[in-house]
Every structure is written in structure tokens, then in C-alpha cells.
Amino acid sequence: MFMAIEPFSLVDYPGHIVATVFFGGCNFRCGYCHNPSLVEVKEKPGASPFDLIELLKSRKGLLDGVCLTGGEPLLSSDMLPTAQAVKELGFKVKLDTNGSSLAKLQEAAPFLDYIAMDIKAMPEKYDMLTGCRNSWEKCRPTIAWIMESGIPYEFRTTVLPAWHTFEDLWAIRKILGEDANWVLQQFRQPPEGVLDGKIYEPYPDSWLNEIGQKLNCQVRGLR
Predict the structure, then answer these.
(1) Do the strands 65-69 and 18-23 form a parallel or antiparallel pair, or are they unpaired?
(2) Kind of pairing, strands 18-23 and 2-9?
(3) How many helices (H) and strands (E) does the chain have?
(4) What predicted TM-score, i.e. pTM, was given to this entire model?
(5) How would you classify residue 16: left for phi > 0, otherwise alpha for psi between -120 and 50, otherwise beta?
(6) Which residues neighbour 211 within 8 Å (Cβ) at sequence distance 6 or greater?
């Protein structure tokens, strides 16, 4: 199910100009989620795959591709045919995923040019953060598959003091390995609020930048 299409983005697919498609529905309940309206699927008018294809036809030569995000795109029955249709038009496809649906990711793989998987926390904190039982066990095999798939990828973690100490981040780096492409993202409290309604304080930019250097990570979202 589509919820919305952003027709132009310079930030959602590294190095590319894309349209971004937001799918409704997610199996995780991360309190600091920036897109609470996309977590619970409620039937209401929204964009459609047809709208996206018509947009892309009108933007050939202007857009490089499409970013499929959410919510969790792999939960949507529209995701796979959308990715295939976008590829058939000659555009690149980037997928954002929480990594909990490996079989569906493998099914979509022939149509993907880039995968961005969220690493929410160290394993011991996964269930508490996501509100989903056995969530790490669902995500762990996806990490290995992505690294072996041959598809360009990044892992990414939105960092905030409520969930991540330096020791936590170091533990994640050891799990991923020294050479895995891992991005740390600064948390910014959105004006419209987050899923659990709380106010979360971020780390100082200087701290996160220093940690990124220590862990060999790119850092995004610094001011």
C-alpha cells in the first residue's frame, strides 16, 4: 500500500536524484520513529503504483531512480511489482528495510541496485527497542546475506543516548566486521513528534563525529 510519493530527493539515495515512495505499515514499533503515520496502515486515499509510473515517465533524464521506504516496504504487496516496473523503465531502485523479512528481500533482489538496512541496536536491546519478539533473530541472517549478495549496500544506525552507548556501538561494529559499510545517523527531534510522543535528546555532533572516526563510519545529519 502506497501512502505518499516525494517527487524529488537529493538525500535518500547516495549520489543520486530520486523520487521517494513511502509505504504504510511496519512490524516494528521503535519509539523514536520519525514516520509514526506510516507505522499503522489505515485505509485512506493515497498515491498508487500507477501515479509513480506516470511520474517516472515524465521525469526521464531528470531522475536517476526511486527510493522505496516506509514503514517497512517489504510488508507491502505493492513493493515487488513496483520495483520490477521501475527497473523496466530503466531507473535504479534503492530499498530501505529493517531487515526482518529476508525471504521477501531475496525475492526482490533481482530488481534492487542498493539496499539500506537499519541496525537498530545491539542484539540484547533489539526486542525492547522494536517492540517485536525475536527481532534480532529475524534480522541477523539478513546482515550476512546482504554482505554476500553483491548488491551495493549500507547498514545504518540512528544514534541517541536513550539506546546507544559507545560500548553498544562498538559491539555492533564487531558484529558487522571492520569493513562493512556502516553509517551513523544523528537523531533530530521532528517538529511533528515521534511514535511514542517522547522528547529525545541527541548526542552532541562533536561526540558523534568522534565516534564515527573511531568506528570507521560515515556520519550523517551533523549541523
Answers:
(1) parallel
(2) antiparallel
(3) 7, 8
(4) 0.95
(5) beta
(6) 159, 166, 169, 184, 217, 219
Give phi and psi for 211, each to the nearest 5.
-65, -40
Residue with cell 501512502: 3
Contact of 84 with 66, CB cutoff 8 Å? no
Q: pLDDT (tens digit, 0 to 9) for every residue of the chain, 223 residues total?
A: 667 899 999 999 999 999 999 999 999 999 999 888 888 765 555 678 888 999 999 999 999 999 999 999 999 999 999 999 999 999 999 999 999 999 999 999 999 999 999 999 999 999 999 999 999 999 999 999 999 999 999 999 999 999 999 999 999 999 999 999 999 999 999 999 999 999 999 999 999 999 999 999 999 999 8
Query: Would strands 114-118 and 182-186 be described as parallel, antiparallel, or unpaired?
Result: unpaired
The answer to whether 23 and 71 have CB atoms below 8 angstroms apart is yes
**Domain annotation for the chain: domains and CATH numbers:** 2-155 (3.20.20.70)
DSSP run (H or E) holding 7 = strand 2-9
Nine-digit cell at 162?
536513550
Q: Which helix (H) or strand (E) holds 56?
A: helix 49-58
Q: Provide the sign of the torsion angle of the four alpha carbons 10, 20, 107, 130, taken in this order.
A: positive
